[in-house]
Design goal:
69 residues; alpha+beta; 1 helix; 3 strands; 32% strand; elongated; cytoplasm
Amino acid sequence: MKTVDCVERKGKYVYFTVVMAEGKEIDFRCPQEQGWNAEITLQLVQYKNRQAILAPAQVELKKPSRQED
């Protein structure tokens, strides 16, 4: 999985898109009035925050190490 986005709130539904590493997308929706919609949204925020924190560490790991002469 590459990312998860809350696409839009439209009418009585919230639409989400999951983007896979291969570029394929999976769309799904949930009723705006139901509580589990809020749980999905909070998990999206947590996932995005984790990605932001780990991104600099992943860049560091990919850098070639410099050897001292």
